[in-house]
Amino acid sequence: MNKVNVVQLLNDWQKNLKFCKKCQTWKSLKENFYVRKSQLNGKTYSYCNDCNKKMNSDWRRKKHQTHYERRTFTSGLKRCPNCRRNLPLVNYKMRSDRPGQPASYCTPCKNEVSLGRYYRRIGREMPERNTDIHS
Predict the structure, then answer these.
(1) pLDDT tens per residue across span 37-54
(2) How many CB atoms are closer than 10 A to CB 133?
(3) Distance in angstroms (rounded) separating the CA atoms of residues 7 and 11
């Protein structure tokens, strides 16, 4: 083998393999690396599919745990994003999909939002109601 053939062989080998920075191994480019959809030139990620999946699942698990650690309601109060009041947990319905977690909106605000959605759906104007829904 002459020097030109060796260089050509190495170039072909490098085109088909890629080095994963996480697991420190050479892997097949087409089978083991995701192509970035945002890149029109077909660039791939620096990590192989296995390492990428593991890092993403670890990140989601960590994010999920810290989110629910922040959402503990030790004071017995929760802020409603609609009326922006701190109300006792008694004023919130509990979520069926997450036991022990109150709903986002307090019950009066939730009823008001649902009623407004109903009237928009049937194409009618919502009738005038008491302005203070918490009374």
Answers:
(1) 776 666 777 888 888 888
(2) 15
(3) 6
